[in-house]
Amino acid sequence: MRALCIAAALVAGTATAQEAPAGLAEASGAILRGLDKVAGTASDIELSVGQSVAFGHITVTLNDCRYPPDDPSSNAYAFVTVTDGNLEAPVFAGWMIAASPALSALDHQRYDVWVMRCKID
C-alpha cells in the first residue's frame, strides 16, 4: 500500500511539471542545448516559436517559450516536441524548465536536449 501511495505522488508531481505557471510573458524563441552522448559534443540550438531543426537523428520543435516578466534571466519554460525519424510517436512533448532540467527531461538513448533561456526581443 505504501508503494502505491509513493507511486501516485510521483505521477502527480510529473503531471504538474508539464504545465507552465500562470503570469509568464511569451517570448519569440528560445535557446536550447543539445548533447550527442555518443560523439560527446554539445551544441546550442536557437529556435523561433514554431520552428523545427534537425539535431543529429532527431528533430526539435519549439512550440512556446515563456519567462517571468519581472526577471527574464531567472528562468525559462519551453514547450518542446522532439521526434525521432525512426519512430512514429514523439519521443518527448511537454514543458522543459531551465531551472530544473531533470524535472521534465528528454529520455533518448543518444541525445539530451534542455532549455537554456528564452529569446527576448
Describe the structure.
The protein is mainly β. It has one domain (2-119). It has one helix and eight strands, in the order H-E-E-E-E-E-E-E-E. The protein has one helix spanning 2-17, and strands at 25-26, 29-36, 41-48, 52-55, 58-67, 77-84, 92-97, 111-119. The strands form two sheets. Strands 1, 4, 5, 6 and 7 form a five-stranded antiparallel beta sheet that branches. A three-stranded antiparallel beta sheet has the order 3-2-8, with no helix packed on it. A hairpin with a 2-residue loop joins strand 4 and strand 5 (58-67). The longest helix has 16 residues, at 2-17.
What are its keywords?
1 helix; five-stranded antiparallel sheet; 13% helix; three-stranded antiparallel sheet; 121 residues; disordered N terminus; 8 strands; mainly beta
* Class per helix and strand makeup: mainly beta
Low-confidence stretches: 1-17
Task: Give the overall silhouette.
Answer: globular
Mean residue pLDDT: 85
